[in-house]
Specification:
Elements lengths: L1 H26 L7 H32 L6 H12 L20
Length: 104
C-alpha cells in the first residue's frame, strides 16, 4: 500500500507548504489582511509626529528668545511671573483648579 501512496507523498508535502505560506501571506504580521491596521496606525503616528514637530518648533523659538544673545524681555517677564507667581498690581488674576490650568 505504501508503494501506491509514495508518488503522492511529495505532492502532498508541496501542497502543505503552499497552503502554509498562503495562510501566512494573508494573516501574518505583514499579511494582506493586516494592511488596513498598519495604515490606520501609520495615519495616527503621522498625526502625532506632526503635533510633536510643531510643539518642538514652538519650544525652540521660545528657547531662542530666552538665550543670552536674543533675550526677549516680554517672554522673560512672562516666565518669571509663571514660575515665581508674581503679578502686576493692575492685572486681574483668575485662579483655576490645577487640572484646568494652562501650561506654558
Amino acid at each position: 500500500m505504501s508503494d501506491r501512496l509514495r508518488p503522492y507523498l511529495l505532492t502532498s508535502l508541496f501542497t502543505a507548504l503552499i497552503a502554509y505560506f498562503a495562510f501566512q501571506a494573508l494573516t501574518g504580521d505583514r499579511g494582506l489582511l493586516s494592511e488596513q491596521a498598519r495604515r490606520t496606525t501609520l495615519a495616527e503616528r503621522s498625526a502625532e509626529l506632526k503635533t510633536l514637530v510643531a510643539r518642538r518648533q514652538e519650544l525652540e523659538a521660545r528657547v531662542t528668545l530666552l538665550s543670552d544673545k536674543h533675550l526677549s524681555k516680554d517672554l522673560l517677564e512672562e516666565r518669571a511671573r509663571v514660575v515665581l507667581g508674581f503679578a502686576d498690581p493692575h492685572e486681574y488674576v483668575i485662579r483655576t483648579p490645577s487640572g484646568q490650568a494652562r501650561r506654558s
